[in-house]
C-alpha cells in the first residue's frame, strides 16, 4: 500500500480550522456570549411556527430556487427577481462571489483589519489577497484601496459597517471610490450590519447597485433578523453576476426551514427592527460608558464595539471570560464586543471599568 496521501491543493496550506471533537470557538455554553455579533433575542413566535410547519417536510429537498424568499426580497427592495441570489449565509454568497470572479493569478482587495473570512475564501480560490490597512482611525482608506487596483484585480470587498471596528464609509467617499473602479472589477458592498446603521450619511448599497452593474450588495438574515443558526444570506446584483452566483451555489444549500423562517422574518420586520432599535440604544449606552471610563473606542454603527488594546488584549479577554462574558480577541490588536442583552452589557462594562 502506498504511503502517500491524496494530493491536496496547496492553497489550503495554512488555512485555520477547528478541531473535530471539540466545540469550535463560537460554540459551547457560557454565561454571556458577546463574541460572534449574534442577536440576543430569541426567534419570534411566528418564525418558530414557520419552522415547525417546515419540519413536516424534512423528507423532501428544499426549493432550490428559494422562490418564495426571492419574491419577497424582490418586492421588499424593488429589484427584479433575477437580480437576487441566495446562499448558505452571506459568507457562502461571498465565497460564491469570489469563485465567480477570481482564481490563481487574480487579486482580491479588501481593507484590513476586516471580516476574517475574506482572506480565507480568497486563499481557497487561489487568488491573491491585497490587504489595504485601515486608517489610524480604523476606517477604510478608500483612496489607498483605489490606488491598489491593478490589471489583475477582479473583486473588491467594502465592509460597511466594517467588522470588527464598526466604522463606516459615507456616501460621497464611496461614490468617489466607485468612480475610480474599472467597470470590469466587481465591488461587493458587504452590508451584514446595515440595519444597525443610524448615520444618515451612510448609503444603502442598493443606491449604488441601481446604476452600477459592477456593484453587488451582500446582506444576511444572521444579524438584525436573528437567524444566524439557519444560514441564509443573499446578494443583489445585476446579471450576469447574479446568474454566476446561481451557478456557483451549493445545490439545495438553503434549507426549506431557513427559507420559510426568512420569509416569516421579513413579514415580521417591524417587530424585528424594533428590537434592532433597542440594540442600537444599548450600543450608544455601552459606547458612551466606555468613553466615560477613559477607553478610546471608535464610533460604531454596528451591533458591536471595537477596543484597540494592543498587548493588553489577551488579558482583558481573559478577565471578561472570568467574569462570565465571552468576547472576541484579535491577538495583539484589540477586542470586539457584541452588544447583547442589558445584563450582559452591564457585566462587560463592570469588567472594563475594573480592568482600565
Ligand atoms: N459579512 C460580515 C461583515 C460579517 O461580519 C459576517 C458574520 N460575522 C458575515 C458577512 C457572514 O454572516 P453569515 O454567513 O452568517 O450571513
From TrEMBL:
Region Disordered, annotated ranges: 1-25
Cofactor entry: pyridoxal 5'-phosphate
Entries under Pfam families matching the protein: Aminotran_1_2
CDD domains with a match to the protein in the record: AAT_like
Annotated ranges, domain Aminotransferase class I/classII large: 33-345
Subunit structure: Homodimer.
Stated name of the protein: Aromatic amino acid aminotransferase
Lineage: Bacteria, Bacillati, Actinomycetota, Actinomycetes, Kitasatosporales
